[in-house]
């Protein structure tokens, strides 16, 4: 229940955020780490920037810490060599969604991943607001028609930005 409450706060908090577009049901992009050890990614940083500003206009910074001990804001799901992180922080700029450009910094690796030009749309229908992502740019490479995972758990659903070691 606590996870669901924090997710609700996160989604509602976006209404007063600095991002241009907000939709209660729009999908987020979850950082998905491939080949990293758990100690490499137990802590990382998400930074939100004004879109199309060449990562110069910082809006917010969010420290993401693994929730393995019950004290962090990152829900990590690991299968084989792949770990997906769902950021459950409750702050407006902790979910990677369209309307902002994003930076993921992995301190243990001294590595930065850039996500920008997130192309999403809002479609109204039956009281819901759908926000599919059509493409995004990750480290200069366009990811066209990314697949949206839909699972029975909200923390494993959504789009994924694959970050290889």
Distance linking N and C termini: 34 Å
Q: What share of the residues does DSSP label as strand, in percent?
A: 35-45%
Q: How many β-strand runs?
A: 12
Mean pLDDT comes to 81
Please tell me what the overall shape is: globular
The gyration radius over C-alpha positions equals 15 Å
Helical run tally: 2
Helix content: under 10%
Q: Summarize the biggest pleated sheet.
A: 6 strands, antiparallel
The secondary structure category is mainly beta
Strands in their spatial order, largest beta sheet: 3-2-6-7-10-11
Low-confidence stretches: 1-25
H-E string: HEHEEEEEEEEEEE
Labels describing this entry:
165 residues; mainly beta; 6-stranded antiparallel beta sheet; 12 strands; disordered N terminus
Question: Describe it for me?
Answer:
Helices cover 10% and strands 43% of the residues. It is built from 2 helices and 12 strands. The chain has a 6-stranded antiparallel beta sheet with strand order 3-2-6-7-10-11. Strand 2 and strand 3 form a beta hairpin. The longest helix has 12 residues, at 2-13. The protein is globular, with a radius of gyration of 15 Å. Mean pLDDT is 81; it is low at 1-25.
């Amino acid at each position: 229940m606590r996870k669901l409450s924090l997710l609700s706060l996160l989604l509602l908090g976006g209404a007063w955020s600095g991002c241009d577009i907000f939709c209660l049901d729009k999908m987020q992009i979850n950082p998905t780490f491939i080949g990293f050890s758990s100690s490499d990614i137990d802590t990382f940083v998400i930074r939100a920037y004004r879109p199309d500003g060449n990562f110069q206009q910082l809006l917010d910074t969010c420290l993401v810490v693994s929730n393995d001990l019950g004290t962090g804001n990152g829900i990590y799901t690991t299968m084989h060599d792949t770990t997906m992180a769902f950021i459950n922080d409750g702050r407006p700029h902790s979910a990677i969604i369209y309307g902002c450009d994003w930076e993921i910094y992995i301190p243990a690796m001294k590595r930065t991943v850039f996500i920008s030009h997130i192309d999403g749309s809002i479609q109204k229908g039956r009281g819901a607001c759908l926000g599919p992502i059509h493409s995004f740019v990750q480290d200069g490479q366009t990811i066209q028609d990314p697949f949206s995972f839909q699972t029975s758990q909200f923390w494993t659903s959504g789009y994924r930005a694959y970050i290889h070691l």
